[in-house]
Design the sequence.
């Protein structure tokens, strides 16, 4: 039975087409298209995709199961093969010269894991959107864009080669643009959307250039598919080649450029300025795209190409420091924000930094594990924030919240689970994944990186607790209108929050070494195992896991205590309103400033010069030329004078000249 | 005083021609233009006659035939010219050549 | 497959339009559309036939010198796709024209058909003078389109366009004159068909060849246009009628690139290779200048004009890498850009009739008031930016690969900045047109003529289709060369399969 992998992206895409048509045709009517139909379809297609993903998992075990059955039935002693990825090539995409790229999909464990939570959490967030966007005129359009996003994300993860992934990569960038600027009557949303798209595009250029160099390393004999790339890099015959200086330099250059692409999508230094601005979009967008799925594409790329990165130790060093630096910077920035969504945005950047840090020390599986758990707890935090905003009729400033744990108990419970996980309190999802990363960093990254990561963990606990305190536990500071309309969210918004909240608590058990639960790492071993083996990623060695985990818990508790202490001493300025203070704003806009100096202002200056100097110069030259021709014409016109005597005179002159020339034998 | 050199008479004729040309070009009154034209014609006649008189060798009287025809033609042309001048004056009310810069009228 | 029929078809259509009623616009529109589609029907078999040619015979001979000027028509993959593109854009232009040209549809259609006929002639020509005749003849309907149907400043724009193009092609004419007369003096028989010319040019001394190459290249540079002879473009495209500008940018500009591929490079291969750097620099400069200036424009169509400048500059730079990816990529670029730029111009024209002005800030919130228009405009804009899934991406990708392989990563990176800059100026345009809040409280829905939707939608569908299945276009570069029709394909040296790491 040929696997029909094309259904996985096709179903959400179909949802996009249908919802888009509904939106288009419903735009003429008074009230807009039918919410029920649109919402139903909007949730149906992702759900169907999720079910298909679950079914597809079976395909991985097909060969193994059949061998097991043979062993059992016939008493054979055949060796049990590992799980076997399967793929489907749809058609030849680009074929010219030496380039031969197919358009196809490949389902392996890494893709399978990613797809499970992408489609699963995606379905939940679609359901949440039905409740959140119920009163919005553009409901069908929203569901259409969300479905399109899911389709592109599936293509990104499922693509069998970097170019197919790139198609999904840019596609999710497009959907991010459309969704951030969803409420397009406000021009500032459009500006934020454009910024996101452009910063992403800068990264995309790096992606493409890195891909070129990678192709150069591989040679023409190797097709540009992940399978072929992995096999090529794992082949011991190529080890000598890869060790030689020129090829190693090529690999390093290629991976650095690919890293640039990854930082663009995952909002790391230097391309991170778009994510906080992206909060201008509706909250489900922030939850799905800017927390759970799209921003993890960078980490996914690193894991996918782990074999390539394993041969570029310099790049991995850079990755680790970028991750650590971003995590630290973003954690501090989150501490001074006053908008609940911005706090969560910087938190996302910070946690993504952890994932990059993990990849940078060669623990790709730990990084992807953090992606997995982060999707749950950040998802629930964002959904909860959306619920709070919804309850307060649009208030987003934490200084005007407070005491909501009593008024919004269900939302509070869900957010509590998320907070518990992210801070790293025992046995929550974040506890397992973050401490795993810290352990790997200490083992392989060295003490400096470990200390930075640990300090960031403390600051994370501080600002997350600060948020919880200001929103839920402190004294109420609500504005009167908000307080009067306070109400819990509808069921469509509650159910996803419950599921994700529960997940925040238990998802970590997918990989809990002390309890010998290692489902996650087992299934990552095929994709990233060889790369990690190359980098010497052993388990064990160094301080015991229990000790490290205790240190982690201590760090979290320390952070919580600091936050409580700061609150008690009134340092959170919760009674003030108005914009951020000067130092806070300067720190927040640091990278915007760098972008401005390095990128935006040179472009502006250059285009000003072209527009006001070069272009008028060229036009002026053309005018001068025309003026000369006109002058010459004017001069020639004098011979066509209507004045009689002039005519006569000039004719005589011409005759005389002719005679002289004849006489001189010139003519 | 030696024999009459051809060049001397030719120079005279050329001078007369130049005077006539100058008159035609420089004067604005149409009458003077006509007078200039007459002068040019007569200068040409003079040139013919002087060639017939001063050419070395037995040239004969052929050089004196052309002026006879030329004089006759000049006379006829003078009449026609004056007639046209009259009609131009009637339509233009002016004898200034500079005023005649529109062919249409 | 009678190519003469294909050439005559648009001429006949132009002739027949004069029998249409000048007053009844609806029937005129229908009839012109029918004629345009009929011409398309004649044209597409040429594309499917791959490589076709008619017999070549002597058109006339120059007296005394005895130089043969030949007449023949031939088409291969390159010209086939451009012919098909033309035949698709002309009916679309006619469909989008009513609001813009008012009741002068008959005249507009006639001009469009004449433009189409001259384009066909240029694309099908086998002889250099024949090509030049059509190349120059193209200017007449183009100028008429701008001068008769355009905006306020149309006369000046048309004049600028005309004079620039003529000035640019004068050196080419001198070159043709030289080739037709001078070698005859040294006792050889010359015929001006392109294949014979290749042999002839090879025997000329190098300095002469260089000057001839420069002369030929200049004419095509003005056509594309390339920096620094690009000044006529922005005015002509923004002052002319939008469907007319669509045709100009969609196809007439491509004749410039076509000229390089068909004439300049095959006739002067050594000079082209030796001076490739100059053209790559010019091409890259065009990319950057176009993109940077597009960021500053205040009128919607001027943004689109500079966008065209930028995209075609990349094509120019890539042609001079002489790589198979580049040739396939340039053909795909021409098709993709023709479709997307034309679609954008069509839509921009409609938007201008609503707002009554060309200024970017005057449109206002079209997404709410004209949703179908907005969807089409957004898709066309994304195709222009080169979003994967559209043909523009495949073309850009191939061109960047070619530049990288031939000139290294830095050149490719500079060219690659178009990825970022094109997104910047296109999104700026999209946001000014579609988003934002309109001035009125209760915006009235705007009427988007169904004809325009029918015109633009197939173009966009083709773009998406070719984005996933660019095979037919990419293969066109490899069609067998005719003995009658040279192509830059001959210059391409297939690299030895490159070993890993080098």
Sequence:
């Amino acid at each position: 039975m040929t696997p029909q992998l094309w259904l996985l992206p096709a179903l959400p895409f179909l949802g996009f087409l249908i919802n888009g048509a509904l939106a288009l045709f419903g735009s003429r009517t008074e009230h807009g298209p039918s919410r029920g139909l649109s919402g139903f379809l909007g949730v149906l297609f992702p759900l169907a995709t999720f079910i298909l993903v679950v079914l597809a998992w079976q395909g991985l075990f097909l060969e193994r199961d059949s061998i097991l059955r043979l062993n059992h039935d016939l008493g054979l002693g055949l060796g049990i093969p590992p799980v076997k990825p399967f793929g489907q090539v749809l058609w030849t995409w680009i074929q010219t010269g030496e380039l031969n790229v197919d358009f196809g999909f490949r389902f392996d464990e890494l893709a399978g894991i990613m797809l499970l939570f992408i489609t699963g959490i995606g379905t939940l967030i679609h359901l949440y959107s039905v409740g959140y966007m119920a009163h919005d005129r553009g409901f069908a359009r929203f569901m259409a864009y969300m479905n399109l996003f899911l389709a592109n994300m599936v293509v990104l993860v499922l693509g069998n080669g970097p170019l197919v992934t790139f198609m999904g990569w840019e596609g999710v960038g497009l959907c991010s643009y459309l969704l951030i600027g969803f409420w397009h009557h406000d021009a500032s949303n459009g500006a934020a959307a454009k910024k996101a798209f452009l910063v992403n595009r800068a990264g995309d250029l790096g992606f493409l250039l890195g891909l070129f160099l990678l192709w150069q390393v591989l040679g023409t004999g190797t097709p540009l598919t992940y399978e072929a790339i992995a096999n090529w890099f794992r082949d011991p015959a190529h080890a000598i080649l890869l060790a030689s200086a020129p090829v190693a330099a090529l690999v390093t250059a290629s991976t650095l450029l690919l890293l640039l692409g990854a930082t663009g999508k995952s909002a790391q230094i230097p391309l991170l300025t778009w994510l906080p601005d992206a909060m201008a979009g509706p909250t489900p967008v922030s939850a799905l795209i800017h927390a759970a799925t799209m921003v993890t594409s960078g980490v996914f790329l690193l894991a996918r190409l782990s074999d390539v990165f394993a041969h570029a130790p310099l790049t991995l060093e850079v990755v680790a420091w970028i991750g650590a630096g971003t995590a630290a910077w973003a954690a501090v920035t989150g501490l001074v924000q006053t908008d609940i969504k911005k706090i969560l945005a910087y938190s996302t950047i910070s946690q993504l930094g952890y994932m990059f840090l993990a990849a940078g020390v060669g623990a790709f599986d730990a990084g992807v594990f953090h992606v997995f758990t982060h999707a749950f707890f950040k998802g629930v935090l964002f959904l909860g924030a959306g619920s709070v905003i919804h309850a307060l009729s649009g208030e987003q400033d934490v200084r005007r919240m407070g005491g909501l744990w009593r008024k919004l108990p269900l939302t509070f419970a869900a957010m509590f689970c998320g907070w518990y996980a992210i801070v790293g309190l025992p046995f929550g999802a974040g506890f397992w994944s973050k401490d795993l990363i810290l352990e790997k960093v200490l083992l392989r990254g060295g003490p400096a990186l470990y200390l930075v990561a640990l300090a960031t963990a403390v600051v994370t606990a501080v600002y997350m607790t600060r948020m919880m305190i200001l929103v839920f536990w402190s004294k109420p500071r609500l504005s009167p209108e908000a307080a009067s309309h306070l109400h819990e969210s509808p069921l469509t918004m509650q159910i996803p929050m419950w599921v994700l909240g529960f997940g925040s608590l238990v998802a970590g058990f997918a990989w809990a070494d002390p309890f010998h639960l290692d489902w996650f790492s087992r299934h990552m071993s095929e994709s990233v195992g060889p790369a990690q083996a190359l980098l010497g990623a052993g388990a064990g060695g160094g301080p015991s896991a229990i000790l490290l985990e205790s240190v982690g818990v201590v760090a979290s508790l320390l952070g919580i205590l600091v936050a409580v202490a700061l609150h008690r001493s009134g340092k959170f300025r919760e009674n003030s309103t108005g914009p951020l203070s000067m130092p806070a704003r300067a720190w927040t806009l640091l990278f915007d400033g760098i972008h401005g100096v390095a990128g935006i202002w040179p472009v502006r200056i250059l285009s000003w010069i072209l527009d006001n100097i070069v272009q008028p110069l060229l036009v002026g030259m053309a005018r001068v030329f025309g003026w000369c021709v006109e002058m010459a014409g004017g001069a020639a016109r004098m011979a066509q004078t209507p004045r009689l005597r002039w005519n006569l005179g000039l004719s005589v002159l011409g005759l005389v000249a002719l005679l002289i020339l004849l006489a001189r034998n010139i003519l | 005083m030696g024999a009459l050199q051809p060049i001397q008479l030719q120079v005279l004729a050329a001078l007369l021609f130049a005077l006539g040309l100058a008159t035609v070009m420089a004067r604005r009154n149409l009458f003077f233009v006509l007078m200039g034209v007459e002068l040019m014609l007569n200068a040409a006649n003079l040139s013919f006659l002087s060639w017939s008189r001063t050419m070395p060798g037995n040239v004969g009287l052929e050089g004196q035939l052309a002026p006879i025809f030329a004089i006759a033609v000049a006379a006829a042309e003078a009449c026609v010219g004056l007639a046209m001048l009259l009609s131009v004056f009637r339509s233009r009310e002016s004898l200034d050549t500079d005023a005649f810069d529109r062919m249409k009228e | 497959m009678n190519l003469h029929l294909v050439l005559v078809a648009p001429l006949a259509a132009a002739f027949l339009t004069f029998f249409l009623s000048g007053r009844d616009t609806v029937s005129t529109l229908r009839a012109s559309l029918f004629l345009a589609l009929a011409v398309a029907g004649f044209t597409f078999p040429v594309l499917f036939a791959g490589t076709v040619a008619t017999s070549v015979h002597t058109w006339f001979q120059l007296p005394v010198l005895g130089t043969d000027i030949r007449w023949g028509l031939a088409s291969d993959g390159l010209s086939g796709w451009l012919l098909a593109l033309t035949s698709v854009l002309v009916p679309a232009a006619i469909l989008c024209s009513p609001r813009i040209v008012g009741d002068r549809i008959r005249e507009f259609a006639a001009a469009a058909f004449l433009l189409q006929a001259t384009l066909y002639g240029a694309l099908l020509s086998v002889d250099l003078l024949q090509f030049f005749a059509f190349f120059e003849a193209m200017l007449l309907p183009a100028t008429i389109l701008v001068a008769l149907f355009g905006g306020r400043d149309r006369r000046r724009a048309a004049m600028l366009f005309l004079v620039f193009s003529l000035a640019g092609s004068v050196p080419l004419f001198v070159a043709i004159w030289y080739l037709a007369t001078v070698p005859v003096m040294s006792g050889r028989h010359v015929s001006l068909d392109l294949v014979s010319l290749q042999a002839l040019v090879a025997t000329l001394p190098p300095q002469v060849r260089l000057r001839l190459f420069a002369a030929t290249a200049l004419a095509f540079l003005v056509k594309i246009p390339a920096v620094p002879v690009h000044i006529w473009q922005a005015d002509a495209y923004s002052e002319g009628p939008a469907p007319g500008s669509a045709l100009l940018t969609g196809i007439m500009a491509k004749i410039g690139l076509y000229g390089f591929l068909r004439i300049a490079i095959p006739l002067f291969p050594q000079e082209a290779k030796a001076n490739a750097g100059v053209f790559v620099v010019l091409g890259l400069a065009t990319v950057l200048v176009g993109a940077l200036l597009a960021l500053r424009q205040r009128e919607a169509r001027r943004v689109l004009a500079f966008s065209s400048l930028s995209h075609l500059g990349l094509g120019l730079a890539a042609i001079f890498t002489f790589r198979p990816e580049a040739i396939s990529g340039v053909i795909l670029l021409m098709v993709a850009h023709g479709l997307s730029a034309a679609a954008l111009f069509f839509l921009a024209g409609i938007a201008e009739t609503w707002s009554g002005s060309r200024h970017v800030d005057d449109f206002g919130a079209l997404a709410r008031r004209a949703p179908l228009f907005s969807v089409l405009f957004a898709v066309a804009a994304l195709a222009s930016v080169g979003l994967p899934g559209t043909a523009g991406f495949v073309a850009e990708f191939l061109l960047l690969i070619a530049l990288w392989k031939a000139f290294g990563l830095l050149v490719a990176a500079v060219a690659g900045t178009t990825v970022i800059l094109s997104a910047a100026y296109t999104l700026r345009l999209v946001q000014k047109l579609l988003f934002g809040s309109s001035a009125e409280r209760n915006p009235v829905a705007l009427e988007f003529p169904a004809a325009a939707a029918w015109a633009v939608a197939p173009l966009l569908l083709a773009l998406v289709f070719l984005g996933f299945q660019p095979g037919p276009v990419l293969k066109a570069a490899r069609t067998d060369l005719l003995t009658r029709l040279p192509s830059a394909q001959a210059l391409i040296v297939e690299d030895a399969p490159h070993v890993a790491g080098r």
